[in-house]
Amino acid sequence: MPVIDPTSRAIINGLQGGFPLTPRPFRDAGLELGLSEGELIEGVRDLVGAGRLSRFGPLWNAELLGGDVCLAAIAVPPERFDEVAEQVNAHPEIAHNYERTHALNMWFVVSAEDPRRIAEVIAEIEAETGLGVHAMPKMHEFFVGFRVEV
Amino acid sequence: MLDAVDRRIVAATQAGLPLVCEPYRAIAEKLGLEEADIIARLKRLLGEGAIRRIGAIPNHYALGFTANGMSVWDVADDAVAGIGAKIGALDEVTHCYERPRHLPLWPYNLFAMVHGHTRDEVRAKVERIARLIGPAARAHDVLFSTRILKKTGLRIAA
Fold it and tell me: Name one GO molecular function term (chain A) (predicted).
């Protein structure tokens, strides 16, 4: 568990949404957090620099930007795992790929600006690996809390 | 749907806001637009859901949340919407989706991602979710990630 100073804690816990859309947003958000404009800017810069924040700004909804995203899973025989991971990851449309504890042990996300590419990429992976790909497209997204407390 | 100016704003902000006193003015100057136009468009995009939120985007791993569990649930199709809304509202759940079953291998139709510092912490959170759902969950499992094989961010061209 990394050590987190009070300024960082205030930023991470207090600013995971609701950053003001005003001309001086760091000053306005800082009032709520008990930080000056300069302290907040420096604190965010330090957190981004240290990699504790992936970034600071808008989180865009990929699907509404015109692209499409599909989760998919494969049951990969353990002795072929690394080889199949390489074949899957070679596709630029694969955004994330995780090994997980299940018979379906490889889980990846296919994303493409042209939604028709999703089915094509899945078919290509099936042909290359000889393994069945289970497509698990999102049917419904529920309200998401999306916060971490440190 | 986004117009061409919106897309330029996406391209200019997807790596983050400029960390300066007047970030929206800085974006406006870069794009040759008015600050008020940038703010108005961001407000509209937030309202439409094209922007989910604006602020700190945590790197779970770097903050010590190294246990990542995909909890999966088999619930009746007619109950999934109500249960999904309840689960998705929990602070410990970062994503919650309904997805298709793949029988007989995969009976689960509701997915909820749970992060924690340890696997035990994630399991305890999953048990709390199980109690919340009650008997409507016919079966559940939690799949821990054991390796990140690839992770690249979303990138949209202007």
Answer: lyase activity
